[in-house]
Design brief:
This protein has 194 residues and is an alpha+beta fold. It has helices at 15-21, 59-68, 71-79, 82-85, 120-129, 162-170, and strands at residues 2-9, 32-39, 49-54, 86-99, 107-114, 136-143, 153-159, 179-188. The longest helix is centred in the first third of the chain and has 10 residues, at 59-68.
Length: 194
């Protein structure tokens, strides 16, 4: 399961502080940061920034809430500069359809798609049949129920550079259970050009 944070830059926070704290300071052996992405060259829709955490199950949400009610959790919330430097304006819960490990370096073309009625196997087959040209399919996630913003799904295709991605950008999405609504270009946080 993926817990995705959607992040905006608070313009009142100096750029250097945002860049420093955007790498985040949360550390837990139960939560794995698999993606920390920043839209690059302003190409694409919101979110401008997103961070994905792999969690074992939705039970982790109960554990987080319990932790943040403890003295230690309250201290972390009161003293961590991260929530003061970043605007965590929304979050979502997603099931992983395809994906393993951390998103590698490179240019990431993120497709935002609708496919609420598709079966998991249909989605997996649809994306595995698509050819990424010189890129590779890194992740496909779909929201849990309605617990994430529209359109509900995201696919990350990773390329070496813009030229390698151009053919994929120009290609029409094939017919199937997925309707790609928009796409954006991202890089790993800190490697982006704002």
């Amino acid at each position: 399961m993926i817990f995705a944070e959607y992040i905006a830059r608070d313009r009142n926070v100096p750029w250097e502080l945002f860049r420093h704290h955007g790498r985040q300071d949360w550390a837990s052996d139960q939560d794995v940061m698999v993606a920390n992405l920043a839209r690059t060259m302003k190409v694409g829709p919101q979110p401008h920034y997103m961070c994905w955490w792999r969690i074992k199950s939705i039970a982790r949400m109960d554990e987080w809430e319990s932790y943040f009610r403890t003295a230690e959790g309250k201290h972390y919330a009161a003293t961590s500069p991260v929530p003061r430097a970043l605007d965590f304006y929304q979050a979502g819960l997603y099931d992983e359809i395809i994906g393993d490990g951390t998103v590698p370096d490179g240019l990431h073309l993120v497709e935002f798609f609708a496919a609420d009625d598709a079966e998991t196997a249909e989605l997996r087959d649809y994306f595995q049949r698509r050819f990424g040209g010189n890129g590779r399919l890194t992740y496909v996630v779909r929201r849990l129920g309605l617990m994430a913003p529209e359109p509900g799904g995201m696919a990350i295709w990773t390329f070496d550079d813009y030229q390698a991605a151009e053919g994929f950008m120009r290609a029409k999405s094939p017919p199937g259970p997925v309707k790609v609504v928009s796409a954006g270009l991202y890089r790993n946080f800190g490697d982006d050009i704002p």
